[in-house]
Amino acid sequence: MTTTEAPEPTSDADRFADVANQLAGRPAPPVTIAAPERLDGGLAERWTREGFFVLRGVVDRDLAAAVADEAIALVRRLATTGEDLGGYRRADGMISVPEPNLVRGPTAPRRPEDHVSKLFNLHRRDPFRSVARHPEITAVLGALLGADVDCFNSQFIFKNPGAWGQPWHQDSLYFDLDRAPQVGVWLATSPATADNGCLHVAPGSHAEPLHHHVPDRRPDANLGYLEIVDHDFSDAVPVEMLPGDVLVFHSFLMHRSGDNSTDARRTALVLHHTPTGTAPVGTPSGTVDFMPVVAGFAPLA
Fold this sequence. Notes:
Distance between the termini: 64 Å
Number of domains: 1
CATH class: Mainly Beta
CATH topology: Jelly Rolls
CATH superfamily: q2cbj1_9rhob like domain
Strand content: 15-25%
């Protein structure tokens, strides 16, 4: 009997998708809320029905601005002192990720912050830690996930002018953990509009299983950009936000971001959370670091 082996992935993007899609098909867990009585009116219903909600103005604008300023300062520091990993830079546990279409464009910017895409591993540092342990945010996280919660992933997103959006995806495909779902917190540190690449979400898609994702085939797309192509997104809605607004979303929720067609940077801090005691499965990730933020429903200082 003759057997035909599957072809080896031909690119880094294919190899990344091949690993991530090992989780594809995992069913969505039942939508539960640990302590619905701790959520203000309507939030529990929205979470159950739509898989997301927005907390308007929950973070002081001065803190949001300090987060953005410190992210830029850290990217500049990594550009001069960090270890060069083929365009990526690493130092003090942080990892900066380039925006390929801006790095190699005919008018490539000169400042480090003008051609970076993301900066990872920030939640143990201030002022990012102040957001991770913000009492109003952690109160919501405790209500959703339970009395004890960890922040396990943090990233600052630089959506520079001309940067492309991230295609439709589900975050849980990227998180191989022994508990699901996780809860994302997306803090706007600049205005997020339809023109500069705000998020779009598909309400109710958090009840879907993890879909198969294909690599983003655009030339110079960011490594790790994967796309859902087997779902109808006609009911998707944009989530426009002001600095200090926070989007809270289920990790199975399908979402994307748009391109930035303006001449100003759109920025955000994104934190991901899970019940304390969650453990990684398989090969450890360099962007997973469990830090307690809620203990006994109380925010940690």
